[in-house]
Design goal:
Elements (H helix, E strand, L loop, with lengths): L30 H32 L6 E2 L6 E2 L21 E4 L4 E6 L4 E4 L7 H11 L7 E6 L6 E4 L13 E4 L6 E6 L16 E2 L8 E6 L2 E8 L4 E4 L1 H4 L8 E5 L13 E8 L13 E5 L27 E11 L6 E9 L2 H4 L13 E6 L6 E2 L6 E6 L2 E10 L10 E5 L4 H25 L1
Antiparallel strand pairs: 1-2, 3-4, 4-5, 6-9, 7-8, 10-18, 11-12, 11-14, 12-13, 13-16, 14-15, 15-16, 17-18, 17-20, 17-21, 18-19, 19-23, 21-22, 22-23
């Protein structure tokens, strides 16, 4: 039997066609678009470059002067070569404010040299009375009671010598030149106010009523005929007292200053001196009593020749050897145990170590570097309620030096609470700066009045 042949069906798969890939030709970018991209890139690069420069500039202006000296009060800087060159560069004149000073117990004249950046003594060769007056004016004294003297020269750093033909209206720092030798081997000493008068004080072992002839620099500061604070005479025009005293009145004209009195009746026989300016330290803190110091500028000068009971006290010069243990005297208008009226009283005190005064048993760290603490030499003294602003003085080299003004009178009830004084040595630069600034204002007012006339 013949087998049946069946047709074989073969499945044919149609090939899968791949999508056609078309490669487009690159298109050319628009010229403006390319420029924009370049500008963006350039700006980004510039920002990256400016960022470090901005950080450096911010650091420079936010920090202290890196290549100069600060004027103070965020008023800019000056080059070191411009400091004490006789030309004012700082807005308030700080660069020329403290270029002349008196040094030590001999009142040695020293002037800051811009070239050497050091204080140098002045050779007396070519020195004149006019130069002495100009030097005192540079410090801040406008009085004429100037005593210029000589001292044997001792300096390994050289001297400053007067130029030939000194000119009266040229700053003293521009009248001098550096010199390695001094021809006559003597240097200049200078007192700008005569604080050399001897003092006859009682040296009492206990506090008691004092005689004004013993403390002729003591003054009474009064408001409306009532004693408020004490003070000390620095020069014919200037009184130093406590800042919290000066702020008792808003106007200088409210104050009356009495010199040469020791009891309430003294105001009947002594003139009242009016006050023209009151300068309170700009950093005074009512709570902590930091910077508790002020100056009063009198309208007319005190006459030291009229009475021996009115004399200035010496400001403590830079370099004065003041070290512990130290014994001094404090005076003020206080109430004795058996009295009702303020009389001038005196007491001998010793200056305490700051660490002891700041201990937990005394003032608990409240005493800052601008303060001094004192305790009475003998306890149990019968003086209470002494006033603020009274002077603390010490004797050295036959002179009396003002080292403090009373800001916390000694406690009458707690023997462990010493008296606290502003440290005058700490404020010496501030005192001279204010005196000099006021003198310039007075000269400007005088010139303005002359022109108006």
């Amino acid at each position: 039997m013949r087998s049946e042949v069946r047709p074989q069906y073969v499945q044919h798969l149609a090939p899968i066609s791949l999508p056609e890939i078309t490669v487009a030709a690159p298109q050319r970018k628009d010229f403006k678009q390319r420029c924009a991209e370049c500008i963006v890139f350039a700006v980004i690069c510039a920002l990256y470059l400016m960022l470090p420069a901005g950080i450096l500039l911010a650091y420079y202006y936010s920090s202290t002067c890196m290549h100069g000296l600060p004027c103070g009060g965020n008023t800019g800087c000056v080059w070191k070569s411009q400091w004490c060159d006789g030309v004012q560069h700082c807005p308030a004149g700080q660069d020329e404010a403290y270029c002349v000073r008196l040094h030590g117990s001999s009142f040695l004249l020293q002037i800051f040299s811009t070239q050497t950046k050091q204080w140098r003594t002045v050779c007396s060769h070519g020195w004149t009375a006019q130069l002495a007056q100009a030097s005192c004016r540079e410090i801040g004294y406008s009085s004429t009671s100037i005593i210029s003297g000589l001292q044997e020269a001792h300096s390994d750093d050289g001297f400053l010598m007067v130029k030939p033909d000194p000119k009266p209206n040229v700053p003293i720092v521009q009248q001098l030149v550096l010199s390695n030798y001094c021809p006559n081997n003597t240097v200049v000493t200078l007192l700008c106010t005569d604080c050399t008068a001897g003092v006859n004080y009682s040296k009492a072992s206990t506090a008691h009523q004092a005689a004004i002839r013993g403390w002729p620099w003591q003054v009474s500061l009064q408001l409306a005929g009532s004693h408020r604070c004490g003070g000390a005479v620095l020069s014919p025009y200037w009184i130093v007292t406590a800042a919290h005293c000066a702020m008792m009145a808003s106007s200088p004209g409210d104050w009356s200053v009495y010199a040469g009195i020791e009891d309430p009746l003294g105001t009947l026989f002594n003139p009242a001196h009016s006050v023209r300016h009151v300068v309170t330290h700009e950093g005074f803190d009512r709570v902590t009593h930091k910077n508790d110091i002020a100056l009063m500028r009198l309208s007319k000068p005190l006459d030291f020749t009229a009475s021996s009971n009115v004399r200035p006290v010496c400001l403590p010069n830079v370099g004065l050897n003041i070290s512990l243990p130290l014994s001094g005297w404090t005076t003020g208008y206080g109430v004795l145990a058996n009295g009702d009226y303020p009389y001038l009283v005196e007491a001998q005190v010793s200056v305490m170590d700051a660490v002891e005064c700041n201990s937990s048993s005394v003032y608990y760290g409240k005493i800052s570097t601008d303060m001094l603490c004192t305790k009475e030499v003998q306890t149990g003294q019968d003086v209470c309620k002494t006033d603020s602003g009274g002077p603390l003085v010490l004797e050295m080299g036959n002179l009396w030096w003002l080292v403090g003004d009373n800001i916390w009178p000694e406690s009458c009830t707690d023997l462990n609470k010493p008296g606290v004084y502003s440290n005058v040595t700490f404020f010496l630069g501030w005192i001279y700066h204010q005196m000099k600034a006021s003198m310039k204002t007075d000269l400007l007012d005088t010139e303005t009045s002359r022109l108006k006339a």
